[in-house]
Hints:
It is a single chain. The protein has 212 residues and is mainly α. Helix content is 75%, strand content 0%. The protein has one domain: Orthogonal Bundle (Arp2/3 complex 21 kDa subunit ARPC3). 42% of the residues are buried.
Amino acid sequence: MTSNLTNNQLLDDQTAPARASRHSWRVVDIVVAAVLGVACGLIFFAWNSIGYAWFTTMDALTPGLGGIAAGIWFLGGPLGMLIIRKPGAAILVELIGAIVSALLGNVWGITTLYSGLAQGLGAELVFALFAYRNFKLPVALLAGAGAGLGAWTLELFTSGNLAKGPTFLAIYLTSTVISGIVLAGGVAHLLSKALAGTGVLDRFASGRDAGN
């Protein structure tokens, strides 16, 4: 029994540095997170007019259906994690994107930052559930759904959605999650694979593991 415990302890001691290294942030990770965040912020800014018009049109047809246009605003979290693969990447990239969008100017102002946090956290938690080890398409899609759920939860309070009734909430949740799956998780996975194919991600696990 003592021998088994000693062997297990040795294995734990040997694998701990590898886990720490895999989860530790490098300077290049921080730089790429900043670049991705700014790029996503520009995408968010461009989508603000298009997406908002789509959102209001769909919502006028069926209250709650506007969430189908929201997924592009969730892109930063899944994309950041799929490329950087370090704890906190989804939150950081999504938040930087939200800050850039707010600074460039939009109708939501400071609340954009709260949205970035909620959406990034929703995506982050999905990857955390898989111990930051699985970055395949199904998990990316789940992360997009998680970002949508994060946005929906925040807006219960910031947008007064809690008072709009169960039918609205159910439709809005369904449409927001579906949009997150397709326009955030799906698009993020395609973009990460496209970038890996160019060779620019060779310093990252995502570039070396482009077959996933």
